[in-house]
Structures are given as C-alpha cells and as structure tokens.
Amino acid sequence: MLLLCGGLYTGGVTMLGQWLFPHQATGSLIQVNGKTLGSELVGQAFVSDHYFHGRPSAAGYDPMATGGSNLASDNPELRERVAADSTVIQRREGVQAADIPVDMLAASGAGLDPHISPQAAYLQVPRIARERQWDEAKVKAVISAHIEAPQWGMLGQPRVNVLKLNLALDAMSASSQ
C-alpha cells in the first residue's frame, strides 16, 4: 500500500498534472526575456510610486510563510496597522479614508493574494499617471485591459493581477522610448 499510494499514485497524478497543466504545475511563473519575475499566484511588494501597489500581506509576501494574521477585527494591533496603512494610502493617493477599498487595507486569508479590485487599481491612477508622466486615460485603459472576470463567470469578484498590470506598464514605457 505504501508503494502503491505513496509512490505510484502520487507520481502518476504529478505527471498527469504536469502534462495537462504545465504552466500551473511549475508555479504559474511569469518570465520576461528569460528572467523569472514572479508568479501569477503570489503577491509581491511594490513600493515605487511608478507601480500599482497590492494588498497588505500578513506573511510578508513570503510564499513559504503563508497564512493570515489571525487577528480579530477588534484586536488593537490589527486596528493600529489598518489605521497606519490608511494614513499612508490617504497621503500617497490624495484620498479620504472612506474612498479606500477594503482590499487595500485587509490582507487576504493566505496573505499572498496577487490581485486587487478594479476599484483599488483605479484609486491609484492619478499617482501612476503623474509618476510616469502619462495621461490618466492611458493608465485607465491599461487597467481595463487587465481586469479578470470572476472564475468561470460566477465565482468571486472581478480582479486585477498587480504583477501583470505593472509588467504591462513597463512594457508600454519601453515601447514608447
């Protein structure tokens, strides 16, 4: 049974998965010019004002340390972090606290969500346009082109992959030079 379940079955399912879903089985890695820049499935920290910023991460964007913070909504530590993040976002984006989408303040359950809501992306348009010296309509068009529909058209919400969005910005910058 050990050989059958632990070896043959596991090996067979692994090979089948790699054959049917080669991109996903290797981590859904995004490569540009032969260089791996990240995964479609794992969020990363973008700190430059030239880039869209993603959700906060309770795991520090470390895929080996996934997990939420497990802090309740009335926990003082969580409230302090959210208040501090809100203040930073208000200053950086020039908005009021009430205008900040919740996904810009709340980490996902695994702490590694690579997506933000379209509202969170559109909130960042003025800063991106200013930093890249682009028209806001150009930045909005990039966002619109990268909005992913709910899974199978019904599960979840529309979302935007932050890494793919930032790579599209860089590609547009490179092509205009």
From TrEMBL:
Q: What is any Pfam family matched here?
A: KdpC
Tell me if Nucleotide-binding is a UniProt keyword of this record: yes
- Which keywords does this chain's UniProt record carry? ATP-binding, Cell membrane, Ion transport, Membrane, Nucleotide-binding, Potassium, Potassium transport, Transmembrane, Transmembrane helix, Transport
Give the primary localization class.
membrane
Q: Does the keyword Transport apply?
A: yes
Quote one Gene Ontology molecular function term: ATP binding
Subcellular location per UniProt equals:
Cell membrane
The protein's topology relative to the membrane is: Single-pass membrane protein
What is a single cellular component term in the Gene Ontology annotation? Answer: plasma membrane
The record's subunit annotation is: The system is composed of three essential subunits: KdpA, KdpB and KdpC.
User: What is this protein's function?
Assistant: Part of the high-affinity ATP-driven potassium transport (or Kdp) system, which catalyzes the hydrolysis of ATP coupled with the electrogenic transport of potassium into the cytoplasm. This subunit acts as a catalytic chaperone that increases the ATP-binding affinity of the ATP-hydrolyzing subunit KdpB by the formation of a transient KdpB/KdpC/ATP ternary complex.
Under PANTHER family, the record lists: POTASSIUM-TRANSPORTING ATPASE C CHAIN, POTASSIUM-TRANSPORTING ATPASE KDPC SUBUNIT
Similarity-based family: Belongs to the KdpC family.
Q: What is this protein called?
A: Potassium-transporting ATPase KdpC subunit
The record lists the organism as Photobacterium ganghwense
* Gene expressing this chain: kdpC
